[in-house]
Amino acid sequence: MSELKVGLIGNGSISESHLQAYLSNPKAELVAVCDLKEDRARETAAKYNIPHVYTDYRELLANPEVQAVSICTWNNSHAEISIAALQAGKDVLCEKPLCKTVEEALRIEQAVRETGKLLQVGYVRRHASNIAVLKKFIDAGDLGEIYFAKASLVRRLGNPGGWFADKERSGGGPLIDIGVHVIDLCWYLMGKPKVKSVSGNTYNKLGNRSHIENYDFYKAADYDASFNTVEDMANALIRFENGASLLVDVSFSLHARQNSAQINIYGDKGGAEIEPALAIVTERHNTIINIDPQISSPGFEFQGSFDREINHFVDSCLGLHETNCPVEDGVEMIKILNAIYESAATGREIQF
Ligand SMILES: NC(=O)c1ccc[n+]([C@@H]2O[C@H](COP(=O)([O-])OP(=O)(O)OC[C@H]3O[C@@H](n4cnc5c(N)ncnc54)[C@H](O)[C@@H]3O)[C@@H](O)[C@H]2O)c1
């Protein structure tokens, strides 16, 4: 007998990782799936023996059997569906980003408060096993006060197209799509300091580079090279009230020699590299020490992190602990991302 009955809303690419995680969690049972594309939802239901299929999320939410939902739809529907789900008495795991605008984020937060239901933001990188390891070092004070973080996710050719390239549905390009992951991760590891100001730049210089030949890259199912309204790349400096700062750059298109991922945090007693593999740096007896933690997954392991994220969500729904990715952390990130876009548009630093 499962303890938590779950519905999936939005049955595209990333939903497969949610499905696999629920399927391997003995406390959870998938009872409903919904997608605008009926064939897609029906195929999933048949494959995984899920009894209820919907094309309208409201009908899924009206099913009293469903206790919790994963929302894996385009970003422009996260707010509407999250609020409706909370009001229908369901606990919610909402994929990142929480939503598009600060106004939407505040409405979601209010719905959480009014309904008393749970909303966990899909910050999957917080659930990576190397982050659990690093967090123990940070919490024990081994890095001291973390005052600087640097995050960079560069795709030289990697605009997925489809809704990702449509600002109306996505809210933006690489900043809101992949920047959200690394800004959140650094902010979380820094101890969630209060933001003081944000300064950012966005560029639309290369477009989606759809003319490039002989180079494969990930494309959304509804890829259309003729349509792209999002930035190619973004960079930002985020200052915190405690004096710490975070420097970030992310791209879908850039004349970079290779794709790269770097996430580093620096404290007054030690530092850490998180991508591509966890490494810790400190000093002992007047000597610099590089520490290479001997762990099975030193880097970000995709499905394993989704498994841990969803196990954490299920246990949060069952009241076994509080979620470590609460709605407030989604709201704060939407404020930061929107401030970066505003700073880029106005050419000014935005004060919080
Ligand atoms: N955590 C991660 O690492 C990660 C990775 C990829 C995507 N995502 C997030 O997951 C979400 C989905 O991304 P994706 O890559 O799966 O996109 P996708 O285009 O592959 O799938 C989205 C699906 O949602 C459906 N959909 C859209 N609006 C709907 C609605 N109102 N009701 C029902 N179904 C609806 C679409 O028909 C489509 O099947 C996005 O918010 C994205 O940011 C997170």
TrEMBL record:
GO MF, one example: nucleotide binding
Positions of the Gfo/Idh/MocA-like oxidoreductase C-terminal domain: 135-351
InterPro entries, A to Z: Gfo/Idh/MocA-like_OxRdtase_C, Gfo/Idh/MocA-like_OxRdtase_N, Gfo/Idh/MocA_Oxidoreductase, NAD(P)-bd_dom_sf
Domain of life: Bacteria
All copies of domain Gfo/Idh/MocA-like oxidoreductase N-terminal, residue ranges: 4-123
Family label: Belongs to the Gfo/Idh/MocA family.
Cited PANTHER family: D-GLUCOSIDE 3-DEHYDROGENASE (PTHR43249:SF1), UDP-N-ACETYL-2-AMINO-2-DEOXY-D-GLUCURONATE OXIDASE (PTHR43249)
Protein name per UniProt: Gfo/Idh/MocA family oxidoreductase
Organism name: Paenibacillus faecis
